[in-house]
Amino acid sequence: xxxxxxxxxxxxxxxxxxxxxxxxxxxxxxxxxxxxxxxxxxxxxxxxxxxxxxxxxxxxxxxxxxxxxxxxxxxxxxxxxxxxxxxxxxxxxxxxxxxxxxxxxxxxxxxxxxxxxxxxxxxxxxxxxxxxxxxxxxxxxxxxxxxxxxxxxxxxxxxxxxxxxxxxxxxxxxxxxxxxxxxxxxxxxxxxxxxxxxxxxxxxxxxxxxxxxxxxxxxxxxxxxxxxxxxxxxxxxxxxxxxxxxxxxxxxxxxxxxxxxxxxxxxxxxxxxxxxxxxxxxxxxxxxxxxxxxxxxxxxxxxxxxxxxxxxxxxxxxxxxxxxxxxxxxxxxxxxxxxxxxxxxxxxxxx
Length: 351
Prior knowledge:
The chain is an alpha/beta fold. Helix content is 44%, strand content 16%.
């Protein structure tokens, strides 16, 4: 086990959704507009359950409803008071850093300082042709735009020049952040180069752990801390994103999740050349060493506590939406995560 340690009150637990297109009780797919309205209700439920963060992803395809997370977050800001909110993630490569900053600064104002942004390259590529970007520029787009965003968040006039957008010369961006600085994370998969990039900019790191053994990411957390030190930055937070579902028992959680999980994974597999999902591999991922946080409250709590300690995490987010999983099932999962799982995790971290 790693020497990393996460004290009780330093760990936050949040939830995330991509606004996955869900089924009703009779198995019919909901209209995306209804799904978006349900996402707002899910955010209200997350706050009522005592969770710390609600994240909304960005996609531009027919199996997800949210393409403009900042608009959804603005609606959530109006019906909540305490929960922090942000993207999960914002695909910075195919957007303009100035516009992204302005939109999240607006969400921050509407939410009274509760907004944050997770910047990433995304695991889908639909936004590149949609917004007129070339996949051949994948690396330089993110590198340059992240560098510009890091300057923007200092809330000072910006001078910047690069290849991917027009230059800025002593340019101010509005509205200003009331607290002075927008909370900004860099979302990464398993790439050491991405981890070093986050360290170079001195920004908090968010790991996307969607398969395999989470503790395999421990060398990346050490690399990140080393990078921060070498670039002269102070220690920063580390978060991690997992997929999961909480139900009253382990068996119920797996049985509820499996058909929707399989449908999603088989669709993605057909696009990316993966084999069909199998129940054996699914259950292995839900085992103690696996990345899927699916089970009863105690099972999920034990896994969160172990991964938080082992990776030195400041926050754990669970993507509670899983393909066509019904809204009512997700609402129950959110409730259990906040009222049952979170207290158990915090108690475990005290031991």
